[in-house]
Fold each of these.
Amino acid sequence: MHLSAKADAAGLPPAGEGESMLRYMDFIRSRTTLTRVPLVPEIELYQATEMTELWRATAADLEKWDDSPFWAFPWAGGQALARHVLDHPELVAGLRVADFGTGSGLVAIAASKAGASRVVAFDVDPFCEAAVRLNTAHNGVTVEFQARSPLGTELAGIDVVLAGDVFYQRDMAERFLVWGRALAGRGIRVLAGDPGRLYSPQQGVKDRGSHDVPTSTAIEDRLLMKTWVLELLPE
């Protein structure tokens, strides 16, 4: 189904039309709860649980959308990467940062709090911009949102790329690794949060640390996931 048809079916307008962003933001506010991120309690996000109206709406009214929307949960990779950035602010302080597949904006918010001079959050989900606007405003930071994928681009004007949970699908993992290693070869630091997904890289990366991340059975198969922060190395 085309994106605009999905939005119509859900009673929401397609992204980019007049008042649509405000309506997306109202949708999120009414169906989620502001909750501290388990591994990163310095940050609060609008989050879904099994009991919220959002979960029921996603499963029914919005059935053509992803039934586990990435923007509504603090995924393990994002939590570990956000924690790592806040614990090691020298990685981003004063630098220009891109957050790939930002979802809720968790990692982007962490980068901003750690002193990045500019943070650009990328995602293609039409709800993500609304979630990022709400979450960044609540946490008192400024993040630029771009509704596109930067895969394959040179990312001019960026010093660090951060990405949480990108190795869950073969095509995405392969494309990200090729792109990320090319960026690393040009001197851009690329860090990924990874809880050992199916297509996690076994070589060409350096382990920068790990965390035991509290998760939810709404999105994972266990309540605690060991999650690594990996730095991509040039080819």
Amino acid sequence: MGKLDGKVAIVTGSGRGLGKAFALAMIREGCSLVVNSVNPERRSADQTADEIRKAGGKAVSVIAEVGSKETAEKLVDTAVKEFGTLNILVNNAGYGRDAMLHQMTEEQWDYIIFTHLRGTFMNSQAAVKHMIDNKIRGRIINITSGVGIHGNVGQSNYAAAKGGIIAMTKTHSKELVRYGICINAIAPLAKTEMFDNVREDLRDFMFQMMAKRNVLQKVGEPNDVAPVIVFLASDDAHFVTGQVICATGDVGELPWD
């Protein structure tokens, strides 16, 4: 039996990268899944859901940008309509819009806050309402970042959003413990598409420096982080809430600080 047999989950931003690794790991443990991505042209959520179904799993896709109440409700309604309930929410969706403080546009600031911070809040609110109404001892897992803990040059928008997610995680865990709902956050560091916009030679240098700083002497892959998601989503994590787990090996502050 899988650790998530009979459970139903939403994983936002699960068309590729970390989110896809999370989705596939949860499916292997018996979970039914709502897969989400934002890009209607790429339709990566459809592709991931098709891959899951071809392998014998249960998945449905929702292509929509997170951040709005409408998307949050659509994700929850889809889970309930397709699979009968909702037990787990993984707030993973997000992108980067980097710029220095004196150069950052309002659009760059607003987009990151809307997607990461408001999206996490709205999705959590919609999921929790269903869990409370149906007496479900659910799990919410938020994806934050070491940037939200330590800060990073050129990422004031991203740092603010990810720091806010940490604060919300701790606050929501205190609010919802009476309902048996556990809420935790993971700060991962892995090779994902978020590094694709970095010039190749600089990206290679960054990975080399990260590996050098890491006691494990490597930079993680998405599949290195996915087992942490499975644990926090499972009944095994019933005594873990309000925590921020750094799935980074041991990097601490970023090596170019």
Amino acid sequence: MNYMDAFVAAVPTANKAKYLEHARIAAAVFKELGALQVVECWGDDVPEGKVTSFPLAVKCQADETVVFGWISWPSKAVRDRAMAQAMEDPRMQPDVNPMPFDGQRMVYGGFEVLFDG
């Protein structure tokens, strides 16, 4: 069964083009290392909740946009190997491909797929 990495982050709206370039580089690395699919989504209709929501989870500011994405892997073992290799890849180094957002406010995790309909 596939394995998924998912994340939510707040990106300065002015950095949309920088974010897209960062994402394209990262996606190329992940796919070379075995990812089946890499999806990046730019928030369009993401309401702020009273108790919890995507914007609240990442402390989204007025000049930021929530992004959501996921990476599909054939297995957790492939994902674990690929992530270790990706962090060593020169294209993923902060001085070469800096994150154009505050990574400390990113929410992410790995998920076992229970159903894919």
Amino acid sequence: MGALADDNLQKLLRELHEKASGDQARWADREARGSDTDSGYEILRLSEFYLAISPQEGELLYLLARASKAHRLVEFGASFGISTLYLAAAAADNGGHLFTTEVQPEKCAAARAHLKRASLTDHATLLEGDARETLKGIDGPVDFLLLDGWKGMYLSVFELLRPKMAKSALVAADNWSHDGAADYVAHVLDSRSGFTTRMINYMGISCFTD
């Protein structure tokens, strides 16, 4: 499986997935301490939560990016960089580059450290800040897009990059059924969108076919 099979990367991914599995306990502890769990975007920014994809989803993203020969990849929402590592590995194998985004400074520092540990820094650039601003400078064509940040921003990020997408570009949207992503889902399912979409587990996979 190319770069993804690297022993060092696999060890790191196992460690990170194990840490991410503690999110439920961390959330329960936060509720027990009486913290505000309804503060929307601020909750997503909390540095203690990984909000990560599963190993199976990571491998799916890697395989989709590899099979589509994606050269320029973009990720919205790196968090601690678990999905970033899968996509950076695909970028390395494809001779391409990943541009990933994260708004929370502590998570940016962690994601950069993980990319360095995995020897993937030459194949990934982390853009710190609001993705609606940091992604404005990304040149096309974008071959692969992962939407995995704040669900209410899926459509705005998608629309920002839509004019830069390559023919047959793939878009993967995690937590597809989340209420916050409803406007994005309605948009790509519309027959006029130019995209063909199917759901695989919790991800909506769309291909630009127009």
